[in-house]
Amino acid sequence: MKKNLTFILIIVISLILGAYGFYLKANGYREPMAEAKEGRYVALGLMSLREGVFPWNADESDEMRYAEGMILPPPEAYAEGETVPAVGTEGADREEDPAAPSPAEAETEEEEASASDNSAAEAVTEKEGETEGTNGAVSQNEAVSQNEALSQSEAESVSENEASWPPPFVTADESYFDDAVFIGDSRMVGVAYFAGISNGHFLAKTSMNIFWMMNTAPETDTSVASVREGLMREQYGKVYILTGINEVGGDTQYFTDAYRKVLAEIRELQPNAVIYIHAVTHVSAAVSAGNPVFDNGRIDERNVALRQMAEEEKVIFIDINEAFDDENGCLPAENSWDGIHPTANMYPLWKEYLLSHTVELNEGF
Question: Does this model's pTM top 0.85?
């Protein structure tokens, strides 16, 4: 009897979770999980409960709001910008020429002058006017020529920079990470713990994805409540972003649109930083062949879109797969404990790859 009750209870709970998971899928929550074939609705329901998305707050969750195309509002401190001071009032601080005669003086001089003197004065004035007009025309032509030359030079500089994007990679030493912040999912957590980057700052959390990245509380820095707060506290020279594996099952355009929103906000918070975005990391051949979501073919398609987005957004695309892949373009099984995450001994290679793929952005980029 007890076994039957237990079995019935399991069935009832599974039905409830499945129904809730179906509701979440219909509203765009966790798209990668929504495409898993077996037990997708029950799994989706369990994952939402683990992440604090309950039936009574599901409609207000960050994931659901992103699915509805809404932009997450920044905190009050971020929303309030400083008032730009007025440059000045037109005509203010203008100085009068002390040598210039007043209208009254000019009128008096005309009345006192004789007819002959007036004629001579008019001739001199006319001559001077012609000279000034000629000089003014020459000066104006010179100014126009100089402006045209500058405009042409600036246009050529911009055109050259656009043609040469992305800029070439150069190798840097470890001090390059002194003003760097690293944001990302469980792979970035691995970089924080095992790569040997002791001078960088990490805002990373397992299962982070692009859709609620800015609101995620990082496990690598518990002093801040969210990635956004961490970026508001300090200015950085470089921002490294790693995400994509948790979102690879969803629509690519939906993913890149969300990514662009995150990049826009990061630029607002970190206007002087060089932004690096990572490629989605490959999985092992076994995982790729046996999983309809974590498939290296889909990952490659996602990386093509990311590379194009990086060029359009003028951020730096880092293909970390070059450091890890085997001859078949897969994560070697012996270098991964689950076919998805690299083993700890692989992360120092990650650090070396990043140091050999830095850029120096000149003015105009």
Answer: no
